[in-house]
Amino acid sequence: MQKIVHISDIHFGKEDESIVNALLTKINEIAPNVIVVSGDLTQRAKHREYKKVKLFLSKLDFPKVVIPGNHDIPLYNLLGRVINPFRKFDYYFPNCNRYENEQVSIVGLNSVRNLRWKSGKLTIKDLEESSEELKVKKNAEKLKIVVMHHNLLHLPSNKNSESIFRTKLMQKWIFDNGIDLILFGHDHKSTIKPILFDHDNIFDFILIQAASATSTRRRGNENSFNLIMLENSFMQISIETYEQHKYKTSSRIKFNKQLIGWEKTE
């Protein structure tokens, strides 16, 4: 069985230490194949915050995919934000945007733009490069996961969601590359949303959004993270929520892989 832990928006600099410790305990109990961190590692992209994140992740001895969020580039240092916004991120987390094993292929995309501090953007070049990394033809049987920080599509449940790429082009890219899951964060909300472009019962891909796992900036939501478990054609996605001083499963949804998409099961 493949186990993927998806955490986001940990915002070190505004973290709750008791929740951090509970998260460490829970993830080590799960012993995942890989941990995905979908951005906003820090609160203000300061060295001391990055050092704390690095120490935290060092206590989780599993492969990791780590991408930046909009909080991981300078906010007040305008020169640094324009000239080299990812200098600190690249120093602490170089070459952390790729993971692959016999069943899973994961690629992280950087949706952060230095002049669009809150909203994000992807370009055609970003998508073309990720297509190459996914090695679609060779790995057609693998679960293909793309990770980004910002929202892919507008989700009605999220007030501040924005589309970060023109929908029709993104749809074509999803189809052409056989993407199964898109993991993201940014809004501090938990969402598992199967997407279908045609009117049938088979979902083309699944959007999975993670709330903040450790931050005191909860925006009215509980701290939580996502756990994805895959065995053959069966997949379960659960939301693990911090309650009564520990993380526990608060909801789960199950799918079976079909020839052209995913079918929701009981």
Keywords:
alpha/beta; 6-stranded mixed sheet; 266 residues; 15 strands; single chain
Describe this protein's structure.
The chain is of the alpha/beta class and 266 residues long. Helix content is 23%, strand content 31%. The protein is built from 6 helices and 15 strands. Strands 3-2-1-12-13-14-15 form a 7-stranded mixed sheet. Strands 4-5-8-9-11-10 form a 6-stranded mixed sheet, covered by helices on one side. The radius of gyration is 17 Å and the shape is globular. About 3% of the residues have low confidence.
Give the spatial strand order of the biggest sheet. 3-2-1-12-13-14-15
Radius of gyration: 17 Å
User: Between the first and last Cα atoms, what is the distance in angstroms?
Assistant: 19 Å
Number of strands: 15
Strand content: 25-35%
Q: Compute the average pLDDT.
A: 87
- Helix and strand element order: EHEHEHHEEEEHEHEEEEEEE
Q: Provide the low-confidence segments as ranges.
A: 155-162
SS-based class: alpha/beta
Question: How does the major sheet shape up?
Answer: 7 strands, mixed
Helix content: 10-25%
Overall 3D shape: globular
By DSSP (H or I, 4+ residues per run), the number of helices equals 6
